[in-house]
Structure formats: structure tokens, C-alpha cells
Design a protein that fits this description.
heterodimer; A: mainly alpha; two-stranded antiparallel sheet; 19 helices; 2 strands; B: mainly alpha; globular
Chain lengths: 499, 495
């Protein structure tokens, strides 16, 4: 079963860890070295991620590029293949791998500006990225959880050391809520492995156990909420989203980008991997509840964003709203809806990374993020405004940008299954238009506040990052078949998904 | 036949102890750190002598002691712990005392007590081995005789320890009264052959034994002595208390409960489960409020004991296969916990030797002044919390997974939740090291090469067990199956 392509996954997983290990031995004063080194690593990872996405065959097997290395087996309660480093991607994780590559590279370039303990920052940053790749690649429950935790933990220090506004509070709240969520996942893992009774953590084996009745329907209904809520915390599931605005407000720019852009997707991805795939009966039973919570999240996030004055809080709440769409899409358990959820993960990932990039570029100069302090910024920062408008329009769902593709799929899926909720989701999109346009009006246009006449436009590095992210949005918006084709087989193979 | 060759490693340890005591008598002016190196060398010899016993056929000594893979496992663990503690103590003791012979001699004696506890298959031998360890610890805890905290710690420990020994003895006498024997196998047979349900004497006897050993491993509500003893004891002895003393307690519990009392599992399993729940919750909640590092570690180790008791409860609730895999996972967790604790204390001692401050706030800015020590402390705390790449992640996950059986899922869930609580106070320590700048006047320093190298070595151990636990798990699996081979002979297991 081992494939040569599996080594690409191993490389993508090992490279950031290796980078962190190497940086550990670089003297702290060698900032430029750490930066160039990280940029090179980021570029290689971007290349590998693009390769993984393109090499994933749209019509082929669901799981591709598999590789299995025995890790712990035939000892204690573990049988054959008890715990193995089993890697592979399906359509959804291939797409999210691409997202990780793009956002991580953009984040690396943005972190260039960082002066304070720059080397330490990159060490933690690469550990986090390794955790993200690992979670997307893992086909073993043990390693899934391993990498999931690995992605969450560095955030405490990344935010606590390099953050801004109330950083300690934000860091602690975020860490405790996310790790609290993973306690739920942990309990779910114990229950699943015990119920299956196969002495293995291998995910495909456990998926089979869940689908052929080895884990009874009753048990599945009990366990599913542990996974759904546990992963849901990271996915910004209402009412457990409260870490998101605080955490995003405190986080440094590149961490916000990776966090909102990629990490929140781990949560939704976990609901698919653990919830839907291991516990199809449980998923079917609980999905209406998830649908309601997702819809509330979408509406609540949008309305909350409407009332905020801080750029980052607006984006934090808007992320809650957009992740609400993802949950709606998943909860439909409909082919189109679930594809939409996967597309939305990508779309929101690149879009929100761009937004946080731009907020960071402004904040670094202005040292304020209050909307009402600004006005007429378009006159001094044209590039910045153009990029922000593109991100905002993608956020609203303008055709031609990724947001449209994704949200359209979700709405179609919702209308085919739960029309009322489809309507509510569209309402949330309308509110999104309101808060975006309000922001455009206040900040970009109107008379220029003389205090800001010296603001500089995007630096070359920021421009490259922004261009990369905008390119991704355009690609999905204009020519989405490479994306949807790769998702099709995977989505229909998910148990319980209707077409 | 009395086969004395079964205990060659322990003879080496005890000879070492006597030699060190004698050395200081003969040369009172001997440099105290030389005694530490001699102790470490003795422990190394002990460890090397134990290696041929791995996989050897089980040797029976007069029906009271047994050397099998289970004993050998604790032999290697005990020798390793003593070696590490001796090296940690070297500079610490040299700077603080003028007589250290008894200190190092007793370390070796205590380690021998630990091995005998694992080897005992008879109640009185087990009791005497336990007292051998306890008495050594009473002295070691109060070793700084001019220090009031150290005195208070020792006194509290002795009084409560004597009380718990009395309970244990009374429990033993009741069990003997019911079964007419003190040998584990004999007890198991007598309990199984009994007609017409359990009598009150057995239940009370078992409860008293549970309370007695519960005290030794500092399970709540018998944990009151631990924080004070930990705080007052010399820093390396705090490490010894939280590793050797706990591991030895669990060695005794495992042998006793799987060998003798498993027949009556219905009587004690709920009590152990409740004890586990109370212990982990109390330990972790009380740890949050601590400002002193030693007390924090004391409470956090009480929390860890709670996790370990989950496996003992699983032995009572599960079938034979569950019991064996839970024991094996418990032994693995003990290794992970021991290595992490030793790494933590190596770093703390290096820090303490420099600053003399054992408060949490004293670690302020350590990431600036000594990044390597900060890294080691972080790694071991994260290992306790069960975060990936560190020993605790794998061992705790395997421990809880192996202990998951019908009727015990709630406890495993509680353990996972407790693990989350513990992360909070570990982060509070991390916060001091990484988020704040060092206080005025603190400059970068280097730890002594000895402690630096030891910390590095233990850090590698923490990472190795966390990333690739297979070899350690295989070893503990052998030890656990030895435990069940013995009990399989004359034992009727519960359906």
C-alpha cells in the first residue's frame, strides 16, 4: 500500500519540525538567517502542498498517497497495526493541504517584520505548521490527536509573547478553551477504540467498524457529541466561539493569519474525520443540532461584527460567522452541502488570512485598530485598499471570487435539505455585506484624517503575500472544477451523505 | 533451597551503602561530591548486575520473594532513580552539609527497599520492605537538622507514616485471621475457596490495607503529609519522594492486588475508583493555588497518583486481559512519569543552586537567563500535562485507553478532564519563564556541566518515550505478564 507519493507527505510533515529543530541551534541574534531560512522552508512547503493538491487524482481512490510505518504494535492491548504512522490524503485534506501551504508561506513573509525574539517565533510557528499538516495527513487516531494537540499548544506562547491588546488574557483563554475541547476528543477516542475492541487506532479500520455496526448505533449517539463539541470549539462553534474574538485580537499578525486561516479548519475537519466517518449513525442523529448551532453562529457572528469598532474583532466575529457556514454545510449531510463546507474552509482560510495581513499592515503603522479613527485611507494606501476590497467582496460572496463558489454550494445543499436554514444562512450573508460596506465607507473613503497622511502602502513582502492569497481566491472563484472534482469522490464516499 | 544468587544486584547496592558510610567514617574530610559519584557508580553497578536477570526464569526465594521480570523492571528503575538522584545531589549537598555519608548510604538502602517491595509475595515481607523504604525516607526528609521546615516535614511524615503502618498491619492481621496465611497465593486460594459470601473481617482488612498503601503513595484523602514533606525535604529528596516512593508503592499494590486480592475485586474496586477520582481532582485543584514550586510538584504528583490508580481500578473491573494490559500501561506510565520528574528536578536543582529560590515567581525570566533549563522544565511540565512529543502524551493516552472498561468510562473521562486542569497551572509556571523579563541584576548563567548533561540526557529520555514508546512498552509488557504468570498458577479469576 505504501506509495512513493507518501514520502511527499512525510517530507511536508518532517520539514517544519526539522526547521524548528535547526532554528533551535541558531543564535538568537541571527535574525536575518532565521528569516531567510524560514522563507525558504515556507516556499518548499508551498511547492509540496501544491504538488499534493495537483497530484491528487480527481477520479481515483478516495485515499491516495498512503504510507504506513508501524509504530507501536503487538504490545499491551495493541494488536497488529495498533498505532502506526499512517499517512494519506483524501479530496478534502488535499484541498486543506494546499490551503496550509499558501497561508503558511504568506505568514512566513509577514513575520519578517518581527524584531523581538524572531528566532523563537519561527520555532513555534513551524511546530504549529507541522501539527496542522500532521492532522490533515494522519490516518491513525493516535497521530491525529498527537498533531491536533501539537497545533494548538504553541499558540499560548505565540500569542502570549508576541501578541498585543490583553495578550495574556487572550492567550490563556484561547489555550484553555481549545485544550478543554480536546479533552472531549480524548474521551471520544477512548470510547471509540474501546467499543471497536480491535486493539488498533488505525482510522480506516475504525471507519469500517463504525459503518458495519461494530460500534453500535446507541454508542455512536453517545460518543458523537464529544467529538463534535471537542472539535467544534476549534471550529468556532457557537456558543463555544468566545475565544475567537479575544484570541484574534491579541494574536500577532502572522499567527492570526494561520490561526483563523488554517487552525479553525482543523476543528471542522475533525468533525468530518472523527464524527461523520467513525460515527455515521451518531452524526445522522446529531446533525440537526449542529445545523441549528451553525446557523446561530453564522447569524450571531455577522450581527456581532456589525456592531464592532475594532478591525480584528470584526474579523474575529466574521470568522465565527463563516465557520458557521461550514457547519451548516456539514450538517446538511448532502453531497453539495458538504462539498460547499470543504470549499468554504479553503475560501475562508485564504480570505481571512488576507484580512488579518492587511489589518496587521495598518496596525503596525497606526497603532490603533479603531474604525472611527480612520477615514480616506484610499488616498494614501491604494494597494492596501484594493486588497481589502477584494477580501471584503470574497467575504460577501461576490461571484468570481472563492466566497461565492463556496457559499453557493452551501446554500444549494441547505435548500435541498433544510430550506428554512438555507434562508437564514443567506440572511447572514446579507448582514455580512452590511458590515463590510460599513467598514469600506468609514475607513477607505471620506475625508483623509491628516494624522494618517504619512501611512505607507503595502511593503513588497506584504504585496507578494497578498497577491498569493488573492490569486487563490480568484482561482477558486473563476475556475472551480479542479477543486470540486477533487472533492466529489471523497464527499460521496462519506457515510450517510446523500446526493 | 536458599538461592542467594537471586539477589546479587541488591547485595551490590547494600555493599555500596556500607562502603560509603564507612568511607566517611574513615576520611571525614572527604569531598562530599565524591560520595555522590561513588553512590552513582554503585547504582550503576547495581543496574548492570540486574541486566542478566531480564527474561531469566523466575526465581523463588523461600516463597517470600520472587525475582521475575516484574522485579527486574523495578530493579532497573530503582537503580536508575538512585543514580540520577545521587548526581543531582552532588553539588547541592556539598554546599549545604558537612556530613553526607548517611544521606548517600540511605539512598541506596531506600532503593533496595523499593526492589524488595516489588519482589515480595507475602504480606509481612512486603510490610518490612515498605518500612525499610519508609524509615530511610523519614531520615532523608529531615536531613537538614538545623532547618525548621525540614524538621517539621520529617516529624509530620513520621507521625502519619507510623499511623498508616499501624493501619496496614491491622489490615494484614485481619486478612491473616480470615485466610490463615500471609502468602499472596495462599490468600487468593483461601478467598476463592470460601463458601457463602464475604465476611466483614475481609472487607475491613482490605480497606485498612488500601488506606495503608494509599498513604504511602499519597492518595487523597491520605495525602496530607505530602506537600509539607515535599517542601521541607532537600530538593533532590523531593524528587526521590515523588519518583521512587510512588513507584515502589505501586509495585507493592500491583503484586498484592493482582496476586492476592483480585479474587475479591468486587469488594475493593469501587473504593479504588473513588480513591482515584478524589485523588486526581484534589491534587489538581489544590495545585492551582500554590506559589511554591515544591508544593506545586507535590500536588501535581498527587494528581498523577490519581491517574495511576485508574489502572488499579481497571484491574478490579476488567477481565484478565484488561487487567494485564492496564498493568503494563501503568508500568509504562510510571517510567514516563519518573523520567519527566527527574528531568524537572535536575533543572530545578541547577536553578536552585544558583538562586536559592524555590518559589514559582523565582523562575521569572529563566528563558532569558538560562534557556536550556527553561526548555527542560517546560518539557517535563508538558510531559505531565500530556502534550505531544513528550513522554506523558503517549504514556497517559495508553494508560487511560488500557484502563477503559465497562463501568469505568466515567473515571477515564474525569482523568482526561483533570489533565486539562493541570495544564492551567503548568502554564502558570511557563508564563513566569517565557512571558516576563528576568528581574534586575539577573544575568545569563551556565548550569554546572554535570547537571546540564544529566538534564540533557533525561530530556532525550522524555522525548524518546514520547515519540517512540515501543521499546519501553515491550519491556513493561514483559514485566506485567510476569505478574500474571504467577497469579495464573493457583488463582481463580473473576468471570
Amino acid at each position: 500500500m505504501d506509495t512513493a507519493q507518501g514520502y511527499v507527505l512525510v517530507t511536508a510533515l518532517a520539514l517544519p519540525l526539522l526547521a524548528a529543530g535547526v532554528l533551535l541551534f541558531v543564535p538568537g541574534s541571527q535574525k536575518m538567517m532565521a528569516r531567510y531560512f524560514s522563507a525558504v522552508i515556507g516556499a518548499i512547503l508551498l511547492g509540496l502542498s501544491v504538488y499534493v493538491f495537483l497530484a491528487y487524482q480527481a477520479g481515483g481512490d478516495v485515499l491516495q498517497m498512503q504510507l504506513r510505518w508501524a509504530w507501536i504494535e503487538n504490545v499491551g492491548f495493541l494488536g497488529e497495526n495498533g498505532i502506526s504512522l499512517h499517512l494519506g490524503v483524501d479530496g478534502i485534506s488535499a484541498l486543506l493541504t494546499l490551503l496550509t501551504g499558501v497561508v503558511a508561506f504568506a505568514g512566513t513573509l509577514i513575520a519578517w517584520k518581527l524584531e523581538y525574539r524572531a528566532k523563537d517565533f519561527f520555532i513555534l510557528f513551524w511546530i504549529l505548521i507541522a501539527g496542522v499538516y500532521g492532522t490533515f495527513f494522519a490516518l491513525d487516531l493516535f497521530f491525529f490527536f498527537f498533531f491536533y494537540e501539537l497545533a494548538v499548544v504553541p499558540l499560548y506562547m505565540l500569542i502570549g509573547i508576541w501578541g498585543s491588546t490583553r495578550k495574556e488574557y487572550g492567550a490563556m483563554k484561547l489555550t484553555l478553551m481549545l485544550v478543554g475541547g480536546s479533552v472531549g476528543i480524548w474521551i471520544g477516542i477512548f470510547a471509540v477504540v474501546h467499543e471497536a475492541g480491535l486493539g488498533t487506532f488505525d482510522l480506516p479500520t475504525l471507519w469500517e467498524a463504525g459503518q458495519n455496526g461494530l460500534i453500535s448505533a446507541e454508542t455512536q449517539k453517545i460518543i458523537f457529541p464529544f467529538f463534535a463539541v471537542g472539535c467544534g470549539v476549534l471550529a468556532g462553534l457557537w456558543p463555544l466561539h468566545t475565544w475567537s474574538p479575544d484570541g484574534h485580537m491579541s494574536a500577532p499578525t502572522s499567527v492570526s493569519m494561520v490561526h483563523a486561516g488554517v487552525l479553525m479548519k482543523l476543528g471542522a475537519f475533525g468533525i468530518i474525520r472523527l464524527g461523520i466517518q467513525i460515527l455515521p449513525e451518531g452524526a445522522e442523529f446529531w446533525m440537526p443540532a449542529l445545523l441549528v448551532l451553525g446557523t446561530i453562529g453564522a447569524l450571531y457572528g455577522a450581527i456581532a461584527a456589525l456592531t464592532q469598532r475594532d478591525f480584528k474583532l470584526i474579523s474575529g466575529y466574521s470568522s465565527v460567522s463563516h465557520m458557521g457556514y461550514v457547519l451548516i454545510g456539514l450538517a446538511t449531510l448532502h453531497e453539495v452541502g458538504v462539498s460547499g463546507a470543504a470549499l468554504q474552509m479553503f475560501s475562508h482560510g485564504v480570505m481571512t488570512a488576507l484580512v488579518f495581513l492587511l489589518i496587521g499592515a495598518l496596525y503596525d503603522q497606526a497603532h490603533t485598530r479603531d474604525l472611527s479613527d480612520f477615514g480616506g485611507v484610499a488616498k494614501v494606501m491604494p494597494l492596501w485598499v484594493i486588497a481589502y476590497v477584494v477580501a471584503g467582496l470574497a467575504n460577501v460572496g461576490l461571484p468570481g471570487l472563492s466566497g461565492f463558489t463556496a457559499e453557493f454550494h452551501i446554500f444549494v445543499g441547505a435548500f435541498r435539505t433544510y430550506p428554512v436554514f438555507g434562508g437564514l444562512a443567506i440572511l447572514a450573508a446579507a448582514i455580512a455585506a452590511a458590515y463590510m460596506l460599513r467598514m469600506f465607507g468609514v475607513v477607505f473613503f471620506g475625508p483623509l484624517n491628516p494624522r494618517w497622511k504619512d501611512l505607507k502602502d503595502l511593503s513588497p513582502l506584504e504585496t507578494i503575500s497578498a497577491a498569493l492569497l488573492i490569486l487563490s481566491m480568484l482561482a477558486m472563484g473563476l475556475w472551480w472544477s479542479p477543486f470540486t472534482d477533487r472533492l466529489a469522490n471523497t464527499v460521496t464516499s462519506l457515510p450517510g451523505v446523500i446526493s | 533451597m536458599r538461592d542467594f544468587t537471586l539477589f546479587i544486584p541488591e547485595f551490590i547496592a547494600i555493599s555500596g551503602a556500607i562502603a560509603i558510610l564507612a568511607a566517611e567514617l574513615i576520611w571525614p574530610k572527604i569531598r562530599k561530591d565524591y560520595l555522590a559519584y561513588a553512590t552513582a557508580a554503585g547504582a550503576l553497578g547495581w543496574l548492570i548486575a540486574a541486566i542478566p536477570y531480564i527474561g531469566d526464569t523466575a526465581g523463588d526465594f523461600e516463597g517470600v520473594l520472587l525475582t521475575d521480570d516484574f522485579t527486574t523492571y523495578f530493579r532497573i528503575l530503582a537503580a536508575g532513580i538512585v543514580m540520577a538522584i545521587a548526581l543531582i545531589s552532588a553539588h547541592y549537598m556539598r554546599d549545604r552539609t558537612s556530613t553526607a555519608g548517611e544521606y548517600y548510604g540511605l539512598l541506596l538502602v531506600a532503593g533496595t527497599g523499593m526492589v524488595l517491595m516489588a519482589a515480595s509475595r507475602e504480606l509481612l515481607t512486603a510490610y518490612m520492605s515498605l518500612e525499610l523504604l519508609s524509615f530511610s525516607l523519614y531520615i532523608l526528609v529531615g536531613y537538614f537538622k538545623r532547618d525548621r521546615l525540614s524538621n517539621e516535614a520529617s516529624l509530620k511524615y513520621i507521625l502519619l507514616g507510623a499511623f498508616s503502618s499501624a493501619m496496614l498491619l491491622y489490615g494484614i492481621s485481619l486478612i491473616y485471621g480470615v485466610t490463615g496465611t500471609t502468602s499472596y497465593e495462599g490468600i487468593a486460594e483461601a478467598l476463592a475457596a470460601r463458601e457463602g459470601g464475604t465476611d466483614a473481617a475481609t472487607v475491613v482488612g482490605i480497606m485498612l490495607i488500601v488506606a495503608g498503601v494509599g498513604f504511602k503513595v499519597s492518595a487523597a484523602p491520605f495525602h496530607m503529609w505530602a506537600p509539607d514533606a515535599y517542601q521541607g525535604a532537600p530538593l533532590p529528596i523531593t524528587a526521590f519522594l515523588s519518583t521512587a516512593s510512588k513507584a515502589a508503592g505501586f509495585a507493592l499494590i500491583l503484586r498484592l492486588f493482582t496476586g492476592a486480592l483480585v479474587v475479591d475485586a468486587v469488594e475493593w474496586r469501587a473504593v479504588i475508583a473513588a480513591l482515584a477520582a478524589i485523588t486526581m481532582t484534589a491534587g489538581n485543584l489544590l495545585a492551582i493555588q500554590q506559589t511554591n514550586l515544591k508544593r506545586l510538584v507535590a500536588y501535581s504528583s498527587i494528581g498523577q497518583v490519581g491517574y495511576m490508580l485508574v489502572a488499579i481500578a481497571a484491574i478490579g473491573y476488567g477481565d484478565a486481559a484488561t487487567a494485564e494490559s492496564a498493568s503494563s500501561a501503568l508500568l509504562l506510565h510510571i517510567v514516563g512519569y519518573t523520567v519527566s520528574t527527574l528531568a524537572l528536578f535536575t533543572a530545578l536543582t541547577a536553578h536552585y543552586n544558583r538562586t536559592g529560590d524555590d518559589s514559582i515567581a523565582g523562575l521569572r525570566g529563566l528563558a532569558e537567563t538560562q534557556p536550556f533549563l527553561a526548555l527542560v522544565i517546560t518539557a517535563s511540565l508538558f510531559s505531565f500535562a500530556g502534550l505531544p512529543f513528550f513522554a506523558g502524551f503517549a504514556t497517559k493516552l495508553l494508560l487511560f485507553q488500557a484502563s477503559t472498561t465497562e463501568g469505568l468510562l466515567w473515571l477515564v473521562g474525569l482523568a482526561a478532564a483533570n489533565s486539562f486542569v493541570s495544564l492551567y497551572y503548568y502554564l502558570m509556571v511557563m508564563r513566569q519563564m517565557y512571558l516576563f523579563d528576568p528581574p534586575e541584576g539577573q544575568t545569563r548563567f551556565r548550569p554546572s556541566p554535570l547537571l546540564g548533561a544529566l538534564a540533557g540526557l533525561l530530556l532525550l529520555g522524555v522525548l524518546f518515550i514520547g515519540v517512540y514508546p515501543q521499546p519501553a512498552f515491550e519491556a513493561t509488557d514483559r514485566a506485567a505478564s510476569a505478574l500474571f504468570e504467577v497469579s495464573a498458577s493457583g488463582l481463580i479469576r473473576l468471570p
